[in-house]
Write a structure and sequence with these properties.
Helix 1 crosses helix 2 and helix 3 (about 90-100) packs across helix 4 (about 185-200). Mean pLDDT is about 80; it is low at about 10-40 and about 45-60. Strands 1, 2, 3, 4, 5, 6 and 7 form a seven-stranded antiparallel sheet that branches. The protein has helices spanning about 1-15, 40-60, 90-100, 185-200; strands spanning about 80-85, 110, 120-125, 135-145, 150-160, 165-170, 205. By secondary structure, the chain is an alpha+beta fold.
Length: about 220
Amino acid sequence: GCLALCNWIRLKLARRHASEPFDPSQPTKLNPTSKSTMQDLVCPKLLTFLVILHAAIVKACVPPDCNNPDFGSCGNACCKLIFMLENAGAEQVAQTLNETIKEGGPDGRFYEVKTAEGVMNIADLRPFKVPTGVAFIGQTIHTTAKRIYNDTINFAIYTNDASTRIDAFSTSQIAGAYGDDGQNFKNLNVLMKAVYSKLGITYSFKHADKSCSAP
């Protein structure tokens, strides 16, 4: 791949500076005293730049909260966390979460989603009296800081006596994302820290499974 790119650059530059018609079937002859030797110096630097650029793009998560990467826990990378909000009712928590999403979240990159129930972001399931005790369900889409990738975040909100439990799940949308550089963990933390802060509750969470575990 790298060699082919360098050869392509050499051929293009040779064609530009050659005084005779360019024949792609013939090997390119580089004159050490001509301008065509420039690409021999530039090419390695160009390839180094491209490698660095590619690494920066792949490394999508921007600190903080990027220290819990996941590797294929859901086929694709994902993260599932449980949040307990003490002395806060499910309706209050759902409203606060909904408002935070509507605002775009703390970083302005959380987007509203229409639910199957026909409302935006958070739907009320209490009228259905679901046996599991789920009270609200919701979703949002988050775009990474470099605006390269989108991730889907799902919520299930449960009434737990005088407190509320949120099962939150973030997964990378793009196919083939075996690793996420910690982005899914970050998605949940950024949003939920804002919710806890608005409710005046000390932030805490626990892992629901082996996804996005601490390194």
